[in-house]
Amino acid sequence: MSETVAGSETPERRSTVRAKRGLFSRWRRNPLLPEAGAGGAPLTAVIAVMSFLAVLAMAAVLIIHQSAGKWTAELQSEITVQIKGADAAEIAAGASAAIRVLNETEGVEEAILKSEEESAALLEPWLGKGNAQAFLTIPALIDVKVTPALRGDLAPLRERLAVAAPGASLDDHATWHNRLAMAAQSGQALALFVFLLVMGAACAVSMFAARAGLAANREIISVLHLVGATDEFIASEVQRRFFVLGFRGAITGMLTAFAALAGAAYLLERGVGADSFLPQFTIGGWSALWLFTVPLATCLVTAYTARLTVLKTLRSQY
Asked: What pTM was computed for the model?
Protein backbone atom coordinates (compact mmCIF):
# COMPACT_ATOMS: atom_id res chain seq x y z
CA MET A 1 0.00 0.00 0.00
CA SER A 2 1.43 3.30 -1.06
CA GLU A 3 0.26 6.78 -0.27
CA THR A 4 1.24 9.98 -1.98
CA VAL A 5 1.84 12.98 0.26
CA ALA A 6 1.83 16.55 -0.96
CA GLY A 7 5.49 17.02 -0.22
CA SER A 8 6.48 14.01 -2.27
CA GLU A 9 5.09 15.37 -5.58
CA THR A 10 7.78 15.95 -8.13
CA PRO A 11 8.37 19.42 -9.60
CA GLU A 12 7.29 18.16 -13.00
CA ARG A 13 3.93 16.95 -11.60
CA ARG A 14 3.35 20.22 -9.77
CA SER A 15 4.07 22.24 -12.92
CA THR A 16 1.73 20.01 -14.94
CA VAL A 17 -1.08 20.48 -12.41
CA ARG A 18 -0.57 24.23 -12.37
CA ALA A 19 -0.65 24.33 -16.17
CA LYS A 20 -3.90 22.38 -16.31
CA ARG A 21 -5.48 24.53 -13.64
CA GLY A 22 -4.24 27.78 -15.12
CA LEU A 23 -5.48 27.16 -18.65
CA PHE A 24 -9.12 27.93 -17.89
CA SER A 25 -9.16 28.80 -14.21
CA ARG A 26 -8.46 32.44 -14.95
CA TRP A 27 -11.74 32.66 -16.81
CA ARG A 28 -13.75 30.43 -14.46
CA ARG A 29 -12.87 32.05 -11.18
CA ASN A 30 -14.85 34.82 -9.52
CA PRO A 31 -14.06 38.39 -10.55
CA LEU A 32 -11.41 40.19 -8.54
CA LEU A 33 -13.61 43.27 -8.21
CA PRO A 34 -17.22 42.84 -7.05
CA GLU A 35 -19.96 43.44 -9.62
CA ALA A 36 -21.48 46.35 -7.71
CA GLY A 37 -21.14 49.43 -9.87
CA ALA A 38 -18.95 47.69 -12.45
CA GLY A 39 -21.04 45.17 -14.34
CA GLY A 40 -23.51 42.43 -13.70
CA ALA A 41 -27.01 42.18 -15.10
CA PRO A 42 -27.52 45.92 -15.90
CA LEU A 43 -24.37 46.14 -18.01
CA THR A 44 -25.14 42.83 -19.70
CA ALA A 45 -28.63 44.06 -20.60
CA VAL A 46 -27.29 47.32 -22.02
CA ILE A 47 -24.71 45.50 -24.12
CA ALA A 48 -27.42 43.11 -25.35
CA VAL A 49 -29.45 46.08 -26.58
CA MET A 50 -26.36 47.57 -28.24
CA SER A 51 -25.56 44.26 -29.93
CA PHE A 52 -29.17 43.91 -31.10
CA LEU A 53 -29.10 47.33 -32.75
CA ALA A 54 -25.63 46.75 -34.21
CA VAL A 55 -26.65 43.45 -35.81
CA LEU A 56 -29.76 45.05 -37.30
CA ALA A 57 -27.72 47.94 -38.68
CA MET A 58 -25.17 45.57 -40.24
CA ALA A 59 -28.00 43.43 -41.64
CA ALA A 60 -29.49 46.56 -43.22
CA VAL A 61 -26.16 47.30 -44.91
CA LEU A 62 -25.96 43.77 -46.32
CA ILE A 63 -29.62 43.61 -47.42
CA ILE A 64 -29.44 46.97 -49.19
CA HIS A 65 -26.22 45.93 -50.93
CA GLN A 66 -27.66 42.63 -52.15
CA SER A 67 -31.02 44.05 -53.21
CA ALA A 68 -29.50 47.04 -55.00
CA GLY A 69 -27.08 44.75 -56.82
CA LYS A 70 -29.94 42.53 -57.98
CA TRP A 71 -32.12 45.45 -59.08
CA THR A 72 -29.35 47.28 -60.92
CA ALA A 73 -28.27 44.06 -62.66
CA GLU A 74 -31.80 43.63 -63.99
CA LEU A 75 -31.98 47.26 -65.14
CA GLN A 76 -28.62 47.03 -66.89
CA SER A 77 -29.55 43.87 -68.80
CA GLU A 78 -32.95 45.08 -70.03
CA ILE A 79 -34.33 47.94 -72.11
CA THR A 80 -37.88 48.86 -72.97
CA VAL A 81 -39.24 49.92 -76.37
CA GLN A 82 -42.49 51.88 -76.35
CA ILE A 83 -44.66 52.22 -79.47
CA LYS A 84 -47.12 55.11 -79.64
CA GLY A 85 -49.76 55.76 -82.25
CA ALA A 86 -53.07 57.45 -83.05
CA ASP A 87 -55.03 54.19 -82.97
CA ALA A 88 -54.64 50.50 -82.22
CA ALA A 89 -53.87 49.60 -85.86
CA GLU A 90 -51.01 52.08 -86.09
CA ILE A 91 -49.60 50.86 -82.77
CA ALA A 92 -49.81 47.22 -83.87
CA ALA A 93 -48.02 47.99 -87.15
CA GLY A 94 -45.28 49.89 -85.33
CA ALA A 95 -44.88 47.08 -82.81
CA SER A 96 -44.49 44.50 -85.58
CA ALA A 97 -41.85 46.61 -87.31
CA ALA A 98 -39.99 47.18 -84.02
CA ILE A 99 -40.01 43.46 -83.23
CA ARG A 100 -38.59 42.74 -86.68
CA VAL A 101 -35.76 45.25 -86.17
CA LEU A 102 -34.97 43.90 -82.69
CA ASN A 103 -34.81 40.29 -83.89
CA GLU A 104 -32.38 41.30 -86.62
CA THR A 105 -30.12 43.24 -84.25
CA GLU A 106 -26.99 41.53 -82.97
CA GLY A 107 -26.86 41.62 -79.17
CA VAL A 108 -30.60 41.31 -78.61
CA GLU A 109 -31.14 38.12 -76.62
CA GLU A 110 -34.92 38.31 -76.29
CA ALA A 111 -37.72 40.67 -77.28
CA ILE A 112 -41.19 40.11 -75.78
CA LEU A 113 -44.21 42.20 -76.77
CA LYS A 114 -46.54 42.76 -73.84
CA SER A 115 -50.25 42.28 -74.45
CA GLU A 116 -52.65 45.20 -74.17
CA GLU A 117 -53.99 43.75 -70.91
CA GLU A 118 -50.50 43.54 -69.41
CA SER A 119 -49.72 47.12 -70.43
CA ALA A 120 -53.02 48.33 -68.99
CA ALA A 121 -52.34 46.51 -65.71
CA LEU A 122 -49.26 48.69 -65.24
CA LEU A 123 -51.50 51.78 -65.21
CA GLU A 124 -54.12 50.42 -62.81
CA PRO A 125 -52.45 51.74 -59.62
CA TRP A 126 -52.90 55.29 -60.94
CA LEU A 127 -55.98 55.11 -63.19
CA GLY A 128 -57.99 52.32 -61.61
CA LYS A 129 -58.97 48.94 -62.97
CA GLY A 130 -60.42 48.98 -66.48
CA ASN A 131 -60.11 52.75 -67.02
CA ALA A 132 -56.94 52.64 -69.09
CA GLN A 133 -58.39 50.41 -71.82
CA ALA A 134 -61.74 52.19 -71.74
CA PHE A 135 -60.53 55.76 -72.20
CA LEU A 136 -56.94 55.61 -73.52
CA THR A 137 -55.03 54.31 -76.50
CA ILE A 138 -52.43 52.30 -74.65
CA PRO A 139 -48.95 52.23 -76.20
CA ALA A 140 -47.32 48.89 -76.90
CA LEU A 141 -44.43 47.85 -74.67
CA ILE A 142 -41.59 45.52 -75.68
CA ASP A 143 -39.27 44.10 -73.02
CA VAL A 144 -35.84 43.52 -74.52
CA LYS A 145 -32.89 41.66 -72.99
CA VAL A 146 -29.59 42.81 -74.42
CA THR A 147 -25.90 41.95 -74.07
CA PRO A 148 -23.50 44.33 -72.31
CA ALA A 149 -21.87 45.16 -75.65
CA LEU A 150 -25.14 46.36 -77.16
CA ARG A 151 -26.07 48.10 -73.92
CA GLY A 152 -22.90 50.15 -74.18
CA ASP A 153 -23.93 51.67 -77.54
CA LEU A 154 -27.67 51.90 -78.19
CA ALA A 155 -27.51 54.81 -80.66
CA PRO A 156 -27.58 52.64 -83.84
CA LEU A 157 -30.56 50.68 -82.52
CA ARG A 158 -32.41 53.91 -81.74
CA GLU A 159 -31.88 55.10 -85.29
CA ARG A 160 -33.13 51.86 -86.86
CA LEU A 161 -36.21 51.84 -84.63
CA ALA A 162 -36.97 55.47 -85.51
CA VAL A 163 -36.86 54.59 -89.23
CA ALA A 164 -38.91 51.39 -88.98
CA ALA A 165 -41.46 52.67 -86.43
CA PRO A 166 -41.68 56.47 -86.15
CA GLY A 167 -43.68 56.17 -82.92
CA ALA A 168 -41.05 54.06 -81.17
CA SER A 169 -38.97 55.27 -78.23
CA LEU A 170 -36.23 53.35 -76.43
CA ASP A 171 -35.77 53.60 -72.67
CA ASP A 172 -32.49 52.26 -71.26
CA HIS A 173 -33.58 52.83 -67.61
CA ALA A 174 -30.48 54.95 -66.97
CA THR A 175 -32.42 57.43 -64.83
CA TRP A 176 -33.91 54.66 -62.68
CA HIS A 177 -30.52 52.99 -62.40
CA ASN A 178 -28.79 56.16 -61.21
CA ARG A 179 -31.53 57.00 -58.72
CA LEU A 180 -31.57 53.48 -57.35
CA ALA A 181 -27.79 53.41 -57.01
CA MET A 182 -27.82 56.74 -55.16
CA ALA A 183 -30.64 55.60 -52.89
CA ALA A 184 -28.80 52.36 -52.10
CA GLN A 185 -25.59 54.22 -51.31
CA SER A 186 -27.47 56.63 -49.05
CA GLY A 187 -29.21 53.75 -47.27
CA GLN A 188 -25.95 51.89 -46.75
CA ALA A 189 -24.23 55.02 -45.45
CA LEU A 190 -27.08 55.64 -43.01
CA ALA A 191 -27.05 52.05 -41.74
CA LEU A 192 -23.26 52.12 -41.36
CA PHE A 193 -23.53 55.42 -39.48
CA VAL A 194 -26.05 53.84 -37.10
CA PHE A 195 -23.67 50.90 -36.59
CA LEU A 196 -20.81 53.26 -35.72
CA LEU A 197 -23.09 55.20 -33.37
CA VAL A 198 -23.98 51.98 -31.55
CA MET A 199 -20.29 51.10 -31.21
CA GLY A 200 -19.64 54.59 -29.87
CA ALA A 201 -22.46 54.20 -27.37
CA ALA A 202 -20.97 50.87 -26.26
CA CYS A 203 -17.66 52.65 -25.64
CA ALA A 204 -19.39 55.34 -23.60
CA VAL A 205 -21.28 52.78 -21.50
CA SER A 206 -18.08 50.82 -20.91
CA MET A 207 -16.22 53.94 -19.81
CA PHE A 208 -18.96 54.94 -17.39
CA ALA A 209 -19.24 51.42 -15.93
CA ALA A 210 -15.47 51.10 -15.50
CA ARG A 211 -15.19 54.42 -13.68
CA ALA A 212 -18.17 53.55 -11.50
CA GLY A 213 -16.56 50.21 -10.66
CA LEU A 214 -13.30 51.83 -9.64
CA ALA A 215 -15.12 54.35 -7.48
CA ALA A 216 -17.20 51.64 -5.79
CA ASN A 217 -14.14 49.48 -5.09
CA ARG A 218 -11.61 52.13 -4.10
CA GLU A 219 -10.64 50.25 -0.90
CA ILE A 220 -10.01 47.00 -2.76
CA ILE A 221 -7.82 48.77 -5.30
CA SER A 222 -5.82 50.41 -2.50
CA VAL A 223 -5.25 46.99 -0.94
CA LEU A 224 -4.15 45.59 -4.28
CA HIS A 225 -1.63 48.40 -4.64
CA LEU A 226 -0.34 47.72 -1.13
CA VAL A 227 0.36 44.06 -1.93
CA GLY A 228 2.20 45.00 -5.11
CA ALA A 229 -0.46 44.82 -7.84
CA THR A 230 0.35 47.02 -10.83
CA ASP A 231 -2.04 49.16 -12.78
CA GLU A 232 -1.64 46.80 -15.74
CA PHE A 233 -2.73 43.85 -13.59
CA ILE A 234 -5.83 45.65 -12.33
CA ALA A 235 -6.69 46.83 -15.83
CA SER A 236 -6.33 43.28 -17.16
CA GLU A 237 -8.70 41.99 -14.48
CA VAL A 238 -11.30 44.61 -15.34
CA GLN A 239 -10.83 43.91 -19.05
CA ARG A 240 -11.41 40.19 -18.47
CA ARG A 241 -14.57 40.90 -16.50
CA PHE A 242 -15.96 43.28 -19.11
CA PHE A 243 -15.19 40.85 -21.91
CA VAL A 244 -17.16 38.10 -20.16
CA LEU A 245 -20.12 40.42 -19.54
CA GLY A 246 -19.87 41.79 -23.07
CA PHE A 247 -19.84 38.30 -24.52
CA ARG A 248 -23.01 37.35 -22.65
CA GLY A 249 -24.83 40.50 -23.69
CA ALA A 250 -23.57 40.44 -27.28
CA ILE A 251 -24.65 36.83 -27.85
CA THR A 252 -28.07 37.56 -26.35
CA GLY A 253 -28.49 40.61 -28.57
CA MET A 254 -27.34 38.72 -31.68
CA LEU A 255 -29.79 35.87 -31.11
CA THR A 256 -32.63 38.35 -30.53
CA ALA A 257 -31.71 40.22 -33.73
CA PHE A 258 -31.64 36.96 -35.71
CA ALA A 259 -35.10 36.13 -34.38
CA ALA A 260 -36.36 39.59 -35.41
CA LEU A 261 -34.88 39.22 -38.90
CA ALA A 262 -36.38 35.75 -39.28
CA GLY A 263 -39.79 37.11 -38.23
CA ALA A 264 -39.58 39.98 -40.71
CA ALA A 265 -38.55 37.60 -43.49
CA TYR A 266 -41.47 35.32 -42.65
CA LEU A 267 -43.96 38.20 -42.79
CA LEU A 268 -42.62 39.38 -46.14
CA GLU A 269 -42.75 35.88 -47.56
CA ARG A 270 -46.32 35.37 -46.35
CA GLY A 271 -47.72 38.38 -48.10
CA VAL A 272 -46.49 41.70 -46.70
CA GLY A 273 -44.50 42.71 -49.74
CA ALA A 274 -43.76 39.20 -51.04
CA ASP A 275 -44.45 40.23 -54.65
CA SER A 276 -43.63 43.89 -54.30
CA PHE A 277 -40.57 46.10 -54.61
CA LEU A 278 -39.49 45.41 -51.03
CA PRO A 279 -36.17 43.58 -50.54
CA GLN A 280 -36.12 40.00 -49.36
CA PHE A 281 -34.03 38.79 -46.41
CA THR A 282 -31.66 36.28 -48.00
CA ILE A 283 -28.62 36.52 -45.76
CA GLY A 284 -26.25 33.57 -45.91
CA GLY A 285 -22.66 32.57 -46.52
CA TRP A 286 -20.27 35.49 -46.21
CA SER A 287 -23.12 37.82 -45.29
CA ALA A 288 -23.96 35.71 -42.24
CA LEU A 289 -20.27 35.66 -41.32
CA TRP A 290 -20.29 39.46 -41.23
CA LEU A 291 -23.20 39.37 -38.80
CA PHE A 292 -21.36 36.92 -36.54
CA THR A 293 -18.45 39.36 -36.29
CA VAL A 294 -20.71 42.02 -34.73
CA PRO A 295 -20.89 40.38 -31.25
CA LEU A 296 -17.13 39.85 -31.29
CA ALA A 297 -16.60 43.50 -32.20
CA THR A 298 -18.94 44.54 -29.38
CA CYS A 299 -17.02 42.41 -26.86
CA LEU A 300 -13.65 43.74 -27.96
CA VAL A 301 -14.81 47.36 -27.98
CA THR A 302 -16.34 47.01 -24.52
CA ALA A 303 -13.34 45.24 -22.98
CA TYR A 304 -10.62 47.39 -24.54
CA THR A 305 -12.43 50.64 -23.71
CA ALA A 306 -12.75 49.49 -20.08
CA ARG A 307 -9.03 48.69 -19.99
CA LEU A 308 -8.00 52.10 -21.32
CA THR A 309 -10.41 53.85 -18.96
CA VAL A 310 -9.06 51.97 -15.93
CA LEU A 311 -5.45 52.68 -16.84
CA LYS A 312 -6.12 56.37 -17.33
CA THR A 313 -8.11 56.63 -14.10
CA LEU A 314 -5.53 54.74 -11.99
CA ARG A 315 -2.64 56.83 -13.28
CA SER A 316 -4.43 60.10 -12.54
CA GLN A 317 -6.11 59.31 -9.20
CA TYR A 318 -4.13 56.54 -7.46
From this structure: 0.69
- Around 104, how many Cα atoms within 13 Å sit in the side-chain half-sphere? 11
Q: Nearest 5°: CA angle at 296, between 290 and 297? A: 80
The alpha carbon of 158 is separated from its chain's Cα centroid by a whole number of angstroms, namely 40
The SS3 of residue 229 is coil
Give yes or no for a contact between 314 and 214, defined as CB atoms under 8 angstroms apart. yes
Query: What's phi and psi for 168, nearest 5 deg?
Result: -90, 140
Q: Is 254 helix (H, G, I), strand (E, B) or coil?
A: helix
pLDDT digits (tens, 9 = 90+) for 220-230: 888 887 888 88
d(CA 303, CA 295): 12
Q: How many CA atoms lie within 13 A of 68 on its CB side?
A: 19
Dihedral sign, CA of 30, 31, 33, 39?
A: negative
| CA dist., res. 204 & res. 305, Å (int) | 8
Report the SS3 class of residue 171: strand
